[in-house]
Amino acid sequence: MKLILKLNVILFLLAGSLNSCEKKEKSDHEDNEIFYYNFDEKIFLKQVKSKIFLKFTPDANEEQLNALIGSESSLRPTSDISLDGNAGLRFAVLEARNGKQIQSTTIEYFKTKAEVISVEYLSMYNDFLQGLTDVITVKLKETTTHAQLQELAEQNHCTVGEENQYVKNEFMLFVSKVSESNAMHTANLFYETGFFEFASASLILLNLSVFIPDNEFYYYVSGEKIFLEQVKDKIHFKFTPEASKEQLLALISSDVSLQPIPLFSFLNEEYHHIRYAALESKDGSHIPLATIESFKTKEEVVSAEYMYLYDGRTLVGLNDRISVRLNETATYAQLQGLAEQYNCTIGEGNRFVKNQFMLYVSKTSNLNAMQIGNFFYETTGLFERSSPSLFSLVMAD
Questions:
Q1: What pTM was estimated for this model as a whole?
Q2: Distance, CA of 258 to CA of 252 (rounded, Å)
Q3: What pLDDT is recorded for position 272?
Q4: Residues near 286 by Cβ (< 8 Å), separated by ≥ 6?
Q5: Strand, coil or helix: what is 67?
């Protein structure tokens, strides 16, 4: 009888031990597998806990950031680092020297630093390493009020940004580093309330090659390179819809060394979405880059760029827009991460073509719409197409 009792106890303990191991294994698996919503589809990711992604404030100097990056001896920086004060996003990826999991206490240590906006483990999806920032984009349903958005934001330690100027009821939220939930968890929570058409965190693609502008000018059409010649005695402008015609005429005539190019301006206020002009130097000399940068400081100017020549007789003007179409494996969160990184705003999706969006490049970006469009298409592997918007005029012989 005692033997049977002892055997039952052993079997019970063994079963409990196996059950405990099974639960631990499941818990570890669930801990490493996370997800977000790509509209209504769940996208599952694998956490990479041997690496962390840090997003920095725009005002911290590079010396401060380098000191912070080197302050934890158990970690080392990877090649994924961007500390340029003029970049759209300043970040660094740190990895454990021994390849093991970075402790949560280390993450909390970095969060106490004033230069740090957010710190999170990396994630992996379709062989892409990705970093999570503090940014969420949400679009309210027609029945959802701004007050409901604000209340949710306050409950979850978020700040509500301005409404997207190109998409009604779309807002950017910024999750505080004091929040118990990161941007991905918070976005999931928001979407699951049923108040939003979508709620998406921003994921930064890593291990991408660095884009270095050269003297070759081209863009893509259906995968084919279309080459252009830069024309430095002419510049093309796109203007804001709010500026009056009088303001724009005053701006165009403000530099006496330049003159308008006939037939290459459209300033009518009733067609506010396509207001543009082109200027050329009166003596045919190169227009200094400093002149373009000076024009970019004006509130009425959306973009200002040198012009281009195609086939020797078609004058081409570049503006701030890029038309992109995601491939089947790409997600909105990845597009959003690229937009954050390269100073772009995502416009409304094309209602006739799935996964096609218009991006608007900020005039503060280091790269123009053609360069960013090429970089996205050539480097990321996310796009079926990525082409800048161009105005053209065939010159008389």
A1: 0.86
A2: 8
A3: 53
A4: 232, 233
A5: helix
Domain ranges of the chain: 35-207, 211-397
Q: What average pLDDT does the segment 198-218 reach?
A: 84
- Distance in angstroms (rounded) separating the CA atoms of residues 46 and 314: 50
Cβ–Cβ < 8 Å for 382, 330: yes
The secondary structure element, H or E, covering residue 231 is strand 224-239
Phi, psi of 152 (to 5 degrees): -60, -40
**What CA–CA distance (Å, rounded) separates 325 from 81?**
27
Alpha-helical (H) ranges within the chain are 2-32, 62-69, 104-111, 146-155, 183-192, 245-252, 289-296, 332-341, 369-375
Pull the structure tokens for residue 152: 């949710």
Tokens representing 144? 């959802």
Q: What is the pLDDT of residues 1-23, one digit of tens each?
A: 443 444 344 334 434 443 444 44
Largest alpha-carbon pair distance within the chain?
Answer: 111
134 vs 186: CA distance, rounded Å: 10
Q: Are 302 and 239 in contact (CB under 8 A)?
A: yes
DSSP letter assigned to residue 181: S
Distance separating alpha carbons of residues 192 and 199, to the nearest angstrom: 9
Residue 282 identity (one-letter amino acid):
K
HSE (side-chain half, CA atoms, 13 Å) at 68: 25
In 3D space, the residue among 141, 95, 90 whose CA is nearest the CA of residue 341 turns out to be: 90
Looking at residue 388, its pLDDT comes to 96
Cα 365 to its chain centre, rounded Å, is: 12
As given in the structure block, the two tokens for residue 180 are: 């118990």
CA torsion angle 363 324 90 136 (round to 10): 110
CB atoms within 10 A of CB 317: 24
DSSP state at residue 238: E
Phi, psi of 105 (to 5 degrees): -65, -30
| Residue 91, token pair as written in the block | 């970040």
Q: What is the pLDDT of residue 207?
A: 82
Tell whether the model's pLDDT for residue 70 goes beyond 60: yes
